[in-house]
Design goal:
The protein is an alpha/beta fold. The protein contains eight helices and 39 strands.
């Protein structure tokens, strides 16, 4: 079996995007558009992937500099798709195998589609196979010209006759090409309405040379090309639908798929329920049997099993263990770790805080740069005063500690195992294990103060 090389055409200006950014760098579900066809091609294990860049080519290369097996070829002038393809095969000149051509603005193409496409090409023993699709709105796509089952050529819209414009089978922009076809590139001219060198002209030249040319009909959705912001949003909606369908098929309940935004590659365990208006991004993962309530946003968050994340909670770059409850209206900032069965309640903010098993902070607290032991209870309004204006300092709270409401813990400070801190205290020194720390002033009641104040005010 011949080896495979892939050429991805990604040099277009993308003028209809009306953007200062290269079209293929526009993000779809958190990833550059070009990454989607690239990820579809990789499982085919091509010997090389040549990416043709042009407009802002340096930025495109920089965005994919960590990718292995890629070579970049720069199309210096936008002279058409045939010129772009010639540029793309220059780095693989002498490659003795078949070449897959795909556009960089086709994020919906799936690996399985490409596998079937290449398999059909090989089975038919074609010299050239064109990926086509049937549509009731052919628009600006090149029309497929056939004589019965034989493909004779492709006519671009600008050059088509009225009869040809009525054809509903169109060019999908993907090709599989045998080595013997490549010399025909030199015979392509720009004698057309656009004055460009069309890769589609290779089809007619191959037919004229007596080579076998075939067409493989692909689902229209797979060959969807993005040329505008509307089409970008449309592609994102389709990709999101596919991913959510996969999640639901795996045993996840997504209550309102239309409003759930979940980036690709995120693992969600079975029997987890995701409410409307949830955003899950980055390298996040969610275990089994969780409930993610409305308005939650997870960014690079690792969520264990049987976790409840309640309404309007933000968790960033943190880990939440099994059986925890977080929110509503909680903010878990980067570097925080909630071990098992931890409760973080409404309007609680954590930053680089570790809460051991069974610890609770149920209301209105800020806990930053803190190590909080097992089964600790943090009262409402507690603050770790971790910043002295120049440096951050750590607060350490031992196992089984009870922190009364409205407590300020001025770091660096340690509260020993089993200690109690009275409500309203400001703790500036370490508290020994088992001790009670109280720093508030002694209460003094002044009898008849209200009536005396009222009488003095009336004079």
């Amino acid at each position: 079996m011949k080896k495979l090389a892939a050429v991805i055409l990604a040099a277009g200006l993308g003028t209809r995007m009306k953007s200062g950014m290269a079209k293929v760098l526009h993000p779809i579900l958190g990833r550059p558009m070009l990454s989607w066809p690239l990820e579809a091609v990789k499982p085919l294990k091509p010997s090389v992937i040549s990416v043709v860049v042009g407009h802002q080519g340096d930025k495109v290369e920089a965005a994919f500099s960590s990718e292995r097996g890629l070579v970049f070829a720069t199309q210096k002038q936008m002279l058409g798709t045939a010129d772009a393809f010639k540029t793309g095969i220059e780095p693989i000149r002498g490659f003795d195998g078949i070449v897959l051509v795909i556009n960089g603005d086709m994020p919906l193409t799936r690996t399985e589609t490409l596998k079937n496409f290449i398999a059909a090409h090989r089975k038919s023993k074609n010299a050239l196979t064109v990926g086509t699709f049937i549509t009731n709105a052919p628009g600006s796509y090149g029309r497929i010209i056939r004589d019965g089952s034989r493909i004779l050529g492709i006519v671009e819209k600008k050059d088509a006759t009225p009869q040809q414009l009525a054809i509903t089978e169109v060019n999908g922009g993907i090709y599989v090409i045998e080595p013997e076809v490549l010399p025909l590139l030199e015979r392509i001219t720009n004698n057309n309405a656009a004055g460009e060198y069309y890769l589609t002209d290779m089809v007619g030249l191959a037919v004229s040379a007596g080579m076998k040319v075939g067409g493989y009909v692909v689902d229209e959705e797979d060959l969807f090309g993005v040329n505008s912001r509307r089409e970008l949003a449309g592609a994102a909606a389709i990709l999101r639908r596919r991913m959510l369908n996969d999640l639901m098929d795996s045993g996840v309940t997504v209550m309102h798929p239309e409003s759930a935004f979940i980036q690709p590659g995120i693992a969600v365990g079975r029997d987890t329920v995701i409410y409307p208006n949830v955003v899950i991004e980055g390298a996040s993962s969610i275990g089994e049997g969780c409930v993610i309530y409305p308005g939650v946003r997870l960014v690079n968050a690792v969520i264990g099993n049987r976790v409840k994340v309640k309404d309007s909670t933000l968790i960033e770059e943190s880990t939440v263990g099994d059986g925890c409850s977080v929110g509503p209206f909680a903010h878990i900032r980067p570097g925080s770790v909630l071990k098992n069965d931890v409760k973080v309640g409404n309007f609680v903010e954590l930053k680089k805080a570790v809460m051991e098993d069974g610890a609770k902070a149920s209301h209105l607290s800020y806990l930053g740069d803190a190590q909080i032991g097992r089964n600790v209870n943090i009262g409402a309004g507690t603050i770790t005063c971790n910043y002295d204006g120049k440096k951050k300092h750590k607060t350490t709270i031992g196992d089984g500690v009870f922190i009364g409401s409205d407590t300020q813990l001025v770091a660096p400070v340690t509260v020993g195992d089993g200690a109690y801190v009275g409500a309203g205290s400001t703790i500036t020194a370490d508290v020994p294990p088992g001790a009670l720390a109280i720093s508030r002033v002694r209460q003094r009641n002044i009898a008849d103060w209200v009536s005396r104040k009222a009488n003095s005010g009336s004079k």
